[in-house]
Amino acid sequence: xxxxxxxxxxxxxxxxxxxxxxxxxxxxxxxxxxxxxxxxxxxxxxxxxxxxxxxxxxxxxxxxxxxxxxxxxxxxxxxxxxxxxxxxxxxxxxxxxxxxxxxxxxxxxxxxxxxxxxxxxxxxxxxxxxxxxxxxxxxxxxxxxxxxxxxxxxxxxxxxxxxxxxxxxxxxxxxxxxxxxxxxxxxxxxxxxxxxxxxxxxxxxxxxxxxxxxxxxxxxxxxxxxxxxxxxxxxxxxxxxxxxxxxxxxxxxxxxxxxxxxxxxxxxxxxxxxxxxxxxxxxxxxxxxxxxxxxxxxxxxxxx
Length: 304
Fold this sequence. Notes:
mainly alpha, two-stranded antiparallel sheet, two-stranded antiparallel ribbon, globular
């Protein structure tokens, strides 16, 4: 029973991560490979505050969201001036730099040894330490993240994000400050990713840099693509499929060393299949990359 609850908690954590990334990838058309970095920054901020200052959980999560959003501002301000592949390379560089900093600041972050003994959440004097309680807490933050994302995407702000995704040039021509909208949604996505980081850190009670690598960023992107970009339910479906499906390998009887490789092969195969034959994912509203639209826009621009 506890194993099932553990899987459900992980699904909830990855749902928060993929919902926040979906604001960038699915609604704005921005492909970022730095999402695991923001996930890790949020986790480390909360862990360090709890371990060194003994601050309460609710304050830690607020400061983690605020601090990670500031990092999103610092990264997004120069990076979002770049476009397409250049922006992807910039976020890739930030992901590598973040991992290196977490791995080498031994006196501050614990380096490769990580931060053990992270205290579990205490909310209004009530300590959350069982799987059932953590699942309830995770679901609460999943619902909060879903609500925030829905409010954003249903508002005029969300319609501008979709316009940027479809055609950035025409959105500028309509008088919208595209750079400001992209920077703001980048900060929001980073801040929401920090929520997942705080939950993960307090649930596992131990973090180290290997939990926030480039492979983790690619995994989150895979959830968005396979679940469906541009749909709020896509990340939910993608998280269930990509977190729960590989766990079935445990029941086949494969050794752990082989099962890990099979899991990576499964992720890669699903990603290729969906990119080729189902670019909208399971329940998506947007074809990832939107290749056909881009070709048409280029033809129209050349005719003009």
